[in-house]
Write a structure and sequence with these properties.
Structural class: mainly alpha
Number of helices: 3
Radius of gyration: 39 Å
Length: 167
């Protein structure tokens, strides 16, 4: 019985170390790729649910589903010990490795967004040019309308009101 409890305690210590490393991986991903607060909360809830499911699975397998406090103590102690010792350095290494992996993707994204912005600016400039051309056409149309009307009324080359000119 004591050997089985020690074995279960050892598995919980191992689960604590693995879950600490997994959470550091999750934190490294969050450091490189910004998430919304709701997404971070959802990720944390899923992570906690996964650790709880694994721990209950261990209890089920080795202790017939009876939950014992020493399992949770082993899990918390090993996770805390991991964070105080190796966790800080491993998280930095994960962040640097993830940064190196994501650098080509970020570079590609930057180039594509710059190209898209340039094409978008060209489209805006074309639209502006079209609007300006339409406005100029309207102005010339209205100006030509007045000239054309006056020209139609002057059949003999004189203004329509001949009395003003002494004719």
């Amino acid at each position: 019985m004591a050997a089985q409890q020690m074995e279960l305690f050892g598995y919980f210590v191992l689960l604590g170390l693995v879950s600490g490393a997994a959470y550091d991986g999750l934190r490294a991903i969050r450091g490189e790729l910004r998430h919304a607060v709701a997404v971070v909360i959802a990720e944390d809830c899923v992570f906690i649910a996964a650790v709880l499911a694994l721990s209950y699975g261990l209890f089920w397998r080795y202790n017939q589903g009876a939950i014992r406090i020493y399992g949770w103590i082993g899990l918390a102690a090993s996770c805390g010990l991991y964070q105080l010792t190796v966790g800080r350095y491993l998280r930095r290494a994960m962040q640097k490795g993830l940064h190196l992996l994501l650098f080509p993707l970020r570079y590609l994204k930057k180039r594509l967004t710059n190209a898209y912005k340039k094409s978008k600016m060209k489209r805006k400039e074309r639209r502006k040019a079209r609007v300006i051309l339409k406005q100029e056409k309207r102005k010339t149309k209205t100006q030509n309308r007045g000239v054309f009307r006056n020209h139609q009324t002057r059949k003999s080359g004189f203004p329509p009101n001949e009395k003003d000119h002494g004719l």
